[in-house]
Amino acid sequence: MHISEGVLSGPVLAGGWALAAAGTALGLRRLDYDRLMTVAILAAAFFVASLIHVPIGPVSVHLILNGLLGAILGPAAFPAICIALLLQAVLFQFGGLVVLGVNTVDMALPAILCFLAFGPLLRAGGRKRAVGAFCCGFFAVLLAGSLTALALALSGEAFAATAKVILLAHVPIMLIEGVLTAMAVAFVARVRPEMLHIRLAG
C-alpha cells in the first residue's frame, strides 16, 4: 500500500507531511522510554511484514500489522511506523522520501484511531478483548486503504480507478489481519498483560 513518488499532488504531499510531523511528535511525547524495546520489536515486525508483496492486478498487497501496533503501542505507533517506512524507502526504495509523510499518515493514523476506538475492549478481557483485537486489525487496514485511495483520488481523476482497486484488493488482508491481531493480542495478554494497558497521559 506504499504510494510511489511522482504520483501525488503538492497539496496532498504537504498535508501528509504536516499530519505526519504532528502525529510523530505526539507519539514521541507519549512514549514511555522503558517500552522502547517493545516499540522497536513491533516496528521491525511492521518493516518485515510489509516487504512481502503479493501482486493482484495493477496493485500489490501485503500484511501491514498497523492495527497490532496501534493495539499495543497506542500513540507510539506513529513514530514506530514512520521509522519503519523511512528505512524501507532508504534501503529498498519502497514508497520514497517525498511521499513518506503521506504513507506514514495512511498507516499510522488508522492505528491510533483504532486504539482509541477499541482500546477499552482490549483491556476488558475475554471475548471483548478478542473482538476488540480483531476490529483493530480489520479496521486499521480498511482505514489505511481508504486513506491511500483518498490521497490518490485527490491527486487527480486519473488515479480514481486505481484507488478503488487498491481498496478492494485489500479486503482479504483486512480479514487476515483481524485474525492475526486477535491471536497476537491473546498471546500478549497471557505473557505480558501490562502491554495492553497503555498510559495516555504524556
UniProtKB/TrEMBL annotation:
- InterPro entries, alphabetized: CbiM/NikMN
What is the topology of this protein in the membrane according to its UniProt annotation? Multi-pass membrane protein
For the keyword Membrane, the answer is yes
The regions listed as transmembrane in this protein's record are: 36-56, 68-91, 97-118, 130-154, 166-189
What GO biological process term is on the record, naming one?
Answer: transition metal ion transport
Keyword annotations for this protein, in alphabetical order, are: Cell membrane, Membrane, Transmembrane, Transmembrane helix, Transport
Q: Tell me, what's a Pfam family for it?
A: CbiM
GO cellular component annotations of the record: plasma membrane
Task: Read off the Gene3D superfamilies from this record.
Answer: 1.10.1760.20
The subcellular localization recorded is:
Cell membrane
Q: Which domain of life is it from?
A: Bacteria
Protein name stated in the entry: Cobalamin (Vitamin B12) biosynthesis CbiM protein
Q: From which source organism is this entry?
A: Solidesulfovibrio carbinoliphilus subsp. oakridgensis
Q: What is the lineage of its organism?
A: Bacteria, Pseudomonadati, Thermodesulfobacteriota, Desulfovibrionia, Desulfovibrionales
